[in-house]
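Input (structure):
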């Protein structure tokens, strides 16, 4: 988990911060949480699926085929696709939930983007109020959080109607062996098509019907990840013996989905 500092005039009033020069900080994220707002753009270029957690399922962008490898970030930290998940666009800021369930804006201290020479952007102005850029970022984070909560509610509808199933992804390695990518889930298209009128109304009324079709449409982009993997590992196998049948997304504790 990242080291988060709650923004306050007392702690950050006289400090400056710098913007990240790329997305290298996300290079080990094989998945990223998505909000409903960004879903229509995300599915145009990247695979979207679900992972399981204690509450049910979480809507995610699929960015890699093995743990801790994000195939959408190149060696220079550039993002390879047109859409960048919203959770990365506010970096190094995040929303966090306090012990009394209050949302607060935090700075990711692990980013090391505090300016030590007085250059960069201020967290707070001379009066102690958040700087204009921080105000804009706060609004963006709040919108993203709302979109994440909407996505969670849609996932609850999918769970109640039993519309989510394991996503079977098989990859052929260089030696001809077929290996599995486990831990991802997708919409059960057969069950979706077999829903009766009442369940279809429930799905549509919850705004979930469009999400279901968006997810199914996005599955074709797994081929994009396979292509990126082949180019990234031209001289070595994508999945080594140690990675075979690895439950890629089982360790959901590494992500806090109460944060954008």
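Output (sequence):
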């Amino acid at each position: 988990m990242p080291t988060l500092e709650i923004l306050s005039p007392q702690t950050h009033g006289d400090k400056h911060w710098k913007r990240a020069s790329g997305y290298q900080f996300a290079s080990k994220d094989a998945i990223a949480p998505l909000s409903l707002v960004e879903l229509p753009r995300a599915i145009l270029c990247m695979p979207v699926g679900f992972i399981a957690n204690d509450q049910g399922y979480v809507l995610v962008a699929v960015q890699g085929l093995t743990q801790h490898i994000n195939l959408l970030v190149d060696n220079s930290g550039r993002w390879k696709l047109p859409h960048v998940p919203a959770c990365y666009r506010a970096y190094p800021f995040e929303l966090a939930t306090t012990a009394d369930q209050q949302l607060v804006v935090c700075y990711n201290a692990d980013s090391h983007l505090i300016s030590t020479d007085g250059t960069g952007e201020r967290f707070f102005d001379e009066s102690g109020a958040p700087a204009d850029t921080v105000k804009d970022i706060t609004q963006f984070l709040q919108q993203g959080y709302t979109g994440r909560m909407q996505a969670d509610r849609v996932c609850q509808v999918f769970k109640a109607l039993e519309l989510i199933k394991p996503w079977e992804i098989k990859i052929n390695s260089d030696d001809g062996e077929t290996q599995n990518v486990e831990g991802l889930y997708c919409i059960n298209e057969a069950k979706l098509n077999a829903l009766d009128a009442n369940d279809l109304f429930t799905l549509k009324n919850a705004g979930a019907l469009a999400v279901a079709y968006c997810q199914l449409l996005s599955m074709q982009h797994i081929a994009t990840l396979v292509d990126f993997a082949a180019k990234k590992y031209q001289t070595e196998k994508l999945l080594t013996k140690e990675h075979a049948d690895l439950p890629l997304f089982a360790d959901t504790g590494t992500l806090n989905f109460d944060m954008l």
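Notes: The helical segments are 9-12, 39-42, 86-89, 132-160, 189-193, 197-205, 208-218, 222-232. The longest helix spans residues 132-160.
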